């Protein structure tokens, strides 16, 4: 086996890129075939249908099934692909359990093609089925000569026109959230491909809009991630709002259950500021029968108000906080002025 440090590409950079895109399109078609037309893909295909996705959506996003990791190597070998190049391109990896024999990166995972702004497939994300014991729910193609995860936003190629038309983007955390929204006709949607938002991804958004609505899961982890993402966007000067979901509900399930119009009217249209979102997040984790908990809630809310709240919004939040704590607005204002203003 050739050491990757010894591998040298054949052809020009343009030719290499053409081979890369052609290979990813070929593999995406193969994975999609496995999902939709084989016995091995039936369970994954049924899972997607049960989650509310139509066959049209499955086809549009070319969702696939990786099946066993060795299948891809055998396919590529049978069609005379350069396995060294396939490894550099992120589709194969040495398997230590098989004495270094190359296998496909994904094993028994739903595959989601990732496209660049031009619509070319340049990577995959693989998602396990419920009940699988893999430690990571998602895994992505490693960085390659033509894909760096932190430089891309999922679905940006399909959503640019809608983002420009509506003059704002809705930022989700998950691929399924974005696909569900698109299926139901909401198209100004993108999602990150990990837990953080990079400067390159923000710059990609800023090419098309400075207004973003962040909509993450309604559980504590989702709200914490949304707040962290929001702080990053605020530092970059974005006009930011937060769409708040009920406890424990994710955007995909909300859209599937309540349909897109209710999501637009009850969630997106009622998106709140950073300070109001931070207050709601703190409120959900507060035991109001505990004085120390109430004090932590007050301090957290007042501290976050200093970051973005206007004078008018601050006054409203002070009144709300006083009512929740059972004290006068004047006492809350005095605490704010003394410790935070």
Identify the notable features of this structure and list them briefly:
single chain; four-stranded parallel sheet; 12% strand; disordered N terminus; four-stranded antiparallel sheet; 341 residues; alpha/beta
Structural class: alpha/beta
Strand order of the largest sheet: 1-4-5-6
Query: Rg, please?
Result: 23 Å
Q: What is the average per-residue confidence, as pLDDT, rounded to a whole number?
A: 91
Give the CA-based shape: elongated
- State the share of residues found in helices, binned by percent: 40-55%
**What percentage of amino acids are in beta strands?**
5-15%
- Compute the number of helices: 14
User: In total, how many beta strands?
Assistant: 10
Q: State the end-to-end CA separation.
A: 65 Å
- Poorly predicted parts: 1-5
- Biggest beta-sheet profile: 4 strands, antiparallel
Listing every helix as H and every strand as E from the N terminus to the C terminus, the arrangement reads HHHEHHEEEEEHEHEHEHEHHHHH
